[in-house]
Amino acid sequence: MRILFLVSAFNSLSQRLHAELRDLRHTVEVHVAGDEGALRAALDRFGPDLVLAPMLKSAVPEDVWSAYTCLIVHPGPPGDRGPSSLDRAVQDGVAEWGVTVLQAEREMDAGPVWASASCPLPPGCAKSDLYRGEVADAAVAAALLAVERFAAGGYRPQPQHGPGWREPIRTRPYLRQEQRRIDWSADPTEAVLRRLRAADSQPGVLDELLGAEWYLHGGHPEPELRGRPGALLATRSGAVCRATADGAVWIPELRRRRTPGGPETFKLPAVTALGALLPRVPEVLAPLMGAEGRAPAWTDIGYREEGPVGFLRFSFPGGAMSTDHCRRLLDAYRFALGRPTSVLVLGGGRDFFSNGIHLNVIEAAADLARESWANITAIDDLVAEVLTTTDRLVVAALGGNAAAGGVMLALAADEVWCRQGAVLNPHYRLMGLYGSEYWTYSLPRRVGAAEAERLTERAQPVSAEAAHRIGLVDRVLACAPADFGPTAAHLAGLLAASPTVQDRIAAKKAARDADERARPLAAYREEELAVMRRQFRDPAAPYHALRAAFVRKRPAPAGAAALCSGEH
């Protein structure tokens, strides 16, 4: 079928559905909502059999849903309505949830239901993590079933009224900041965390801090530090610790509230965002290897062992890796190399693996070209260390999505294991970059030169199953997000116990030595960075306009986008 995606943004769920529908041989085109005239022109040009809206914040025009079957993916169970469904579910601590695919009509979320699927909302998870995990799994299952039913013909969707409808109608209005507000002197830590997690990526929780208004993004419990409610107690890895009525929480990111007529603002690591406003508080580091028997301290990088297997887990907001993130992860990786293991698992968390360099931190830098260069060379140093590890097997475990340099970081490992629901974007083109992270070595080595060119030039999301078919990943794990870490750990244990593991390590070293003789890794790096250096230093390069638009969540400038796609 020909399916037109109508989206407010081509987000993670839209990309996953796009990739999976292409795997099923459907022809899919994406249209970003906004200009109704442009939408009608796209419909006339493409001539879809079906319009599917995986993520849509605005209403479908009546003349469109009257002429085409338009299916809306709503992140709530049957009968649920409103724009803040998942936000409210997380803030209220709901344990079971669902996704509904319904037909667009005049009243929002009130059309007949084509399919639905239920899902758990595990406690302690943030909204965006759940949206890319359990909710996305349910959304894909329901959407694919709805598409199948539509394609087969004859299916009659269930109206949300009448004798056949058994679900209560629950309208959940937009969750305003007044209802998200935190009372630091009265709210217990668990209530604070639910509010922070319900707004972690967007819109954040509006709050006053150090005489200014900020949106707080993300939250993690602190087991030991205590202080006057609302006070800042410490910093760690770019985050700030703030006291609650009965404990404390770590807040990784802040975004300053935009003043009328002032410049647009964007999320940054909390310490970076506060800058000179940050009072003198201690930097309280968490041990890389947590002590047994103690409450786990929040940290964005941690290491543990199970017999001959080491696990180096990292989790950075949005998957973005700043210069500091890369350098600290490199230090942790070198620590892991000093441990007596034969298998090292890199990643293994349930959300993003990595999306490469940190565009927001770069955008906030005094010298954008200098920070871009520092960031790309820092991640290159990390990738080089993985590529040249020859005394053990390295497994990249992708529980969530990866893009650009994050994909290439994974490809530096000996094996890449990927959760079934993960989406890979192994390209740089849409940000106007040539790319580094030794991709000109790793990607063709994995998939061949022709496939590497196709992946980087077409710049489309790739499903886990498609990545496995072309050799981009070695193993796809069909499990729930919460089960990915334990499943990967079990498989890593089996790998380490294999009688052939030492033979594989020896063969790996021989292959790396042969590759180095044929062409040194330094040559790949120098060639890639020569192009990147020009793109960073040229103020007119598309990268700068595209980066600025990306961090501010604005549409990509037409001229820059055309240059990146090769259209002039």
- CATH superfamily (homologous) name of the largest domain: 2-enoyl-CoA Hydratase, Chain A, domain 1
**Text of the CATH class of the largest domain:** Alpha Beta
**What percent of residues adopt helix (DSSP H or I)?**
25-40%
Number of strands: 25
Structural class by helix and strand composition? alpha/beta
The largest β sheet comes out as: 6 strands, mixed
Strand content: 15-25%
CATH topology of the largest domain: 2-enoyl-CoA Hydratase, Chain A, domain 1
Protein name: Two-component system hydrogenase maturation factor HypX/HoxX
Pfam families: ECH_1, Formyl_trans_C, Formyl_trans_N
Account of the protein in words:
The protein has 3 domains: 170 residues, Rossmann fold (3-Layer(aba) Sandwich), CATH 3.40.50; 99 residues, Roll (Methionyl-tRNA Fmet Formyltransferase, Chain A, domain 2); 227 residues, 2-enoyl-CoA Hydratase, Chain A, domain 1, CATH 3.90.226. By secondary structure, the protein is α/β, with parallel strands linked by helices. Helix 1 crosses helix 6, helix 4 runs antiparallel to helix 8 and helix 10 runs parallel beside helix 12. The C terminus is likely disordered. This is Two-component system hydrogenase maturation factor HypX/HoxX. It comes from Kitasatospora paracochleata. It holds the Pfam family ECH_1.
